[in-house]
Every structure is written in C-alpha cells, then in structure tokens.
Design brief:
The protein is of the alpha/beta class and about 425 residues long. Strand 10, helix 17 and strand 11 form a beta-alpha-beta unit. About 40% of the residues lie in helices and about 10% in strands. Strands 1-3-2-4-5 form a 5-stranded parallel sheet, with helices on both faces.
C-alpha cells in the first residue's frame, strides 16, 4: 500500500477532533480524557491525527513539500493507535494506516529528521533496537537449561525479542517466562539469534525494505522447528508476528501467542497453580502493541462504491482495537492470591500510551518521558502500590521515568508476579 491508497480515508476526515480524546461514553472523570499524547503535549492541531491526515492530502496534491518541520510533526508520534480506535468509535475510516505510510514516504523522499536517521542507521547496523545495552546474544539464558528450537519433540518456541534479550534490566522477564514454562512441563526451545529484531521497529519507522529483510530472516530462523506455537513476552514482537507479517503477506506457520495468553491457558488447565500470596494493590497498564494494535489483521479486497457515503463492495470490516489481548493478563493477576487489581480510567483499547513507541523514546526522550509521567500519575490515582504491564518496552520506560522522581510506585511484568506466586 502507499499513501495514495488512503486518499479516500484522509479526505473523509472532518477535523471533528474525536481522535484527540477517548469517546464520551468511555470518560470516567474530568482529568484523564486525552487519547493522543502528541496533540496533548504540543497543543497544536498539526500534531493530531486529523492534522497529519490534512498534511497527507496536501502532500498528494503537491500543495506542500517535505520539510524539516513536517518530518518533525510526522515522527513526534508514538503510533500508539489511540487516535484510530477513538475515530472508529463512530466512523469507518483508516487513521493509523496513513500515518504509517507518511513515514514510509518520508524515508523514500530522504526527509527524515537527523535523530530518526541516526536510529535507523543503528538498527540497520546491529539488527536490534538502538536501546539495547550491548549484551551479547544469549547471555540472558546463562545458568538456565533451555533447549534449541530445532531439537526433536519441541512443541513451543519462546521468542524473547531483541529488546528483552539484549537489555540486562529486562532479563528478569525472560527468565521468569522460562521458569514458568519449565514448571508447567512444556517442551520448548529458544531459537539461536532470538535476540535479533523481528522487523517491527523498521516497519514503524517507515523502512519497508529493512522490515521485509528482517522479517524474512526471522521466518527462516523459525521455519525448521517442529513446534506448532510461538510464545513471545514482547508485545512489539507479538504485534509484528501477528499483525504486520500477515498484513504484508508473510507466512509464519505457527500459532502466535503472547506469554500472558499462554500462561492463562496453563492456569486454566491446572498446569500452573499460584499458591504464594502477593499482598499488593496493583493496576494494569494495557500495552498498545498487545492491546488495540494487537488485534488480528483483517484482510480485505474490494472497491469503494462511488458516491457521498463510504460504501464498500464487499463490506469492509474495520479493526477497532476491540479484540486485542486484554483479558488474559487480568485473568492471571486475578488468580494470584492476595493480589488486588484496580483499574485506571483509561483501559483496554482506550488506554494511554507509555510514551516509548514509534521511536519516540530514542528520538525525543523528553516527549516520551512526559507521556509516561501522565500514565504514572493516572496509575497513582488508583491507590495502587505497583504498576503491572505485559510489555518489556513499557516496563523499561516506566522504570526509567520513575528514576529520580521520588515516586514509590513499583513496576512489574505479569510474568514476574506470576513466577513469584508459583
């Protein structure tokens, strides 16, 4: 697809500003009503989805050209999808897809900001996210008895992803996941090179060629295994394998599950049983890539009928974020003895982003931190003593942001709490 393919969607935008806020029926109070971090931070319409769509049509009509300021507006966005689901609460149009294509067009035109170019170059050189801590691949497994995916009898592939595998501060998530799989008696293995990037970040930055190359390498790494299920604890990898690969016609002949989905199954079947009480009051943060962006991709081929109304032949089903992974993490937390789960105002498909997505943490850390502080404030308002999430990127960013603030809130991954309870 290209930007031109979304002209109809961009021209459908009425600048109603629904993309800036959670839908009215979802509002729980006066304070936490924003859905788009970008326009909430910069307070100018160009930084909203509606403003960016207007810029997209202007680019197509050659009323404007690529400029340093336009690129800065396009890339100061977490691509969290909040604008997309809020718009689709009432309308049938694609909002997030044109934003992806605007980045791809910036890369093609050579019009990316210097900070973005630096990040892209680092990712190309290292085949890992640029936030890695320099650890050698596989070090997170030191001392663990973990098999290889190509061993006979392997049923499950565990894929930690590059963000987790190369950052010692996140190794606890991977090690807790391995411990739980072992306790459940699962025959699993880890692919050599599983700390390489799945390609999702390249796609989000607009580097389609890099995405295709990295995705093909990932598929080749997994294709010879006897496993029938791929389990990942990384929400970004989950969205890449589950959504982006399918969207781009790449076949990964495995059932793709996030670790919380798989652990929920193991708890339901009795293969895992939490017995140790964890006396905490926690709130759960829905990661964008596991929640609204993790909803299965719905392929559609057809045409739009001419006329004032947007009618499609055959009818087109729009992804509205409703079918992301929301219940499994909550089921796990509710099964842990002593744990009390309280919800924030913005949850599930209308959750506020952690701030780290879309390359923003790497290219505009101040904006990323501002966004995280908004979410941490919302978490504190629930009276929780800990924030729990199911995305290594979210956990790392929340912890980084908390440093030096004096806040007592702690941050955990679901797997870490479940492993402690078992």
């Amino acid at each position: 697809m290209a930007l031109e393919d979304y002209r109809g969607d961009m021209e459908t935008c009425t600048r109603c500003s629904l993309c800036k806020f959670v839908p009215l029926e979802q509002v729980r109070g006066a304070k936490y009503v924003n859905i788009c971090p970008s326009v909430a931070r910069y307070n100018f319409h160009a930084y909203s989805a509606g403003g960016r769509l207007a810029a997209g049509t202007a680019l197509l009509d050659k009323r404007i050209g690529y400029s340093e300021k336009l690129a800065e507006v396009i890339y100061n966005c977490q691509l969290c999808g909040g604008c997309d689901v809020s718009c689709k609460y009432a309308l049938d149009m694609e909002v997030l897809e044109p934003l992806y294509e605007m980045r791809a067009s910036c890369v093609e035109a050579g019009a990316v900001p210097a900070s973005v170019k630096k990040m892209i170059d680092q990712s190309r050189d290292n085949r890992q996210l640029s936030t890695r801590s320099g650890a050698e691949g596989g070090q997170w497994m030191d001392g663990l008895k973990v098999g290889d995916v190509n061993q006979a009898g392997i049923d499950v592939i565990y894929y930690p992803g590059c963000r987790t595998g190369c950052d010692p501060r996140l190794w606890g998530i991977a090690r807790a996941t391995v411990s739980l799989l072992q306790k459940a008696g699962i025959r699993f293995g880890v692919a050599e090179g599983a700390e390489l990037c799945c390609g999702g970040q390249a796609y989000r930055m607009g580097c389609r060629g890099d995405f295709q190359k990295q995705a093909q390498e990932s598929i080749a790494m997994l294709i010879n295994s006897t496993a029938h299920t791929l389990v990942t604890s990384c929400a970004e990898c989950y969205q890449a394998f589950k959504v982006l690969y399918t969207r781009c016609g790449l076949q990964l002949e495995l059932e793709v599950l996030h670790s919380t989905e798989y652990f929920d199954r193991l708890l339901e079947s009795g293969q895992l049983t939490p017995l140790n009480a964890i006396n905490r009051r926690v709130t759960y943060h829905d990661p964008c890539h596991l929640g609204r962006l993790g909803e299965p991709y719905i392929p559609w081929k057809g045409t739009q009928r001419p006329g004032h109304m947007r009618l499609f032949d055959p009818p087109k089903e729009f992804r509205r974020g409703t079918h992301g992974v929301y219940q499994s993490p909550r089921n796990i937390l509710n099964r842990i003895p002593g744990l009390t789960l309280v919800e924030m105002d913005r949850t599930k498909e209308y959750a506020w982003c952690c701030g780290a997505g879309g390359g923003v943490k790497e290219t505009n850390p101040d904006f990323a931190q501002w966004t995280a502080l908004e979410r941490l404030s919302e978490a504190e308002s629930t009276g929780a003593d800990a924030l729990v999430t199911a995305c290594p990127g979210c956990e790392r960013h929340f912890r980084d942001t908390l440093t030096g603030t004096g806040k007592s809130l702690q941050v955990f991954d679901v797997a870490e709490l479940l492993e402690a309870a078992i």
